[in-house]
């Protein structure tokens, strides 16, 4: 006699383990994947990350442009324009959300 609930749990745990193996090690995730449209909409008045960058007043056309933005000024913009108190807080929340999604949680 099989227990369907146990079988279903076993399938979910196997899927979770498989997804975790895919995430093992270093991962490079494009910023637009981390800061998805849904994430940006949920935590700000912007529709996407491009609108957030455009509204910031900083020219962000490349990674170098972004790296050149003074941290303090960027954190102030993030605090004023999102539900986060700093860029690191925002990025950390985005990473957690992305990871959960990749794991299938």
List keywords for this structure.
105 residues, 70% helix, elongated, 7 helices, mainly alpha
Would you give an account of this structure?
This protein is an all-alpha fold. The protein has one domain (28-103). It contains 7 helices and no strands. The chain has helices at 4-23, 31-34, 37-43, 49-56, 63-68, 71-81, 87-103. The chain is elongated and about 60 Å long. The chain starts with a helix and ends with a helix.
Main beta sheet strand tally, sense and closure: none
Number of spatially distinct domains: 1
- Beta-strand content estimate: under 5%
**What spatial form do the alpha-carbon principal axes imply?**
elongated
Give the N-to-C terminal Cα separation.
Answer: 29 Å
What is the string of SSEs from the N terminus onward? HHHHHHH
Number of strands: 0
Could you provide a short overview of the structure?
By secondary structure, the chain is an all-alpha fold. It is built from seven helices and no strands.
Task: Give the helices and strands, then pairings.
Blueprint: H1 4-23, H2 31-34, H3 37-43, H4 49-56, H5 63-68, H6 71-81, H7 87-103
């Amino acid at each position: 006699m099989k227990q369907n609930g146990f079988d279903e749990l076993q399938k979910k745990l196997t899927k979770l383990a498989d997804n975790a193996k895919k995430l093992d090690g270093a991962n490079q995730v494009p910023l637009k994947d981390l800061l998805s449209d849904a994430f940006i909409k949920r935590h700000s008045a912007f529709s996407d990350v491009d609108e957030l960058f455009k509204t910031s007043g900083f020219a962000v056309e490349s990674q170098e442009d972004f790296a050149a933005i003074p941290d303090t000024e960027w954190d102030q913009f993030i605090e004023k324009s999102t539900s986060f108190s700093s860029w690191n807080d925002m990025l950390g929340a985005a990473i957690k959300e992305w990871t959960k999604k990749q794991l299938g949680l």
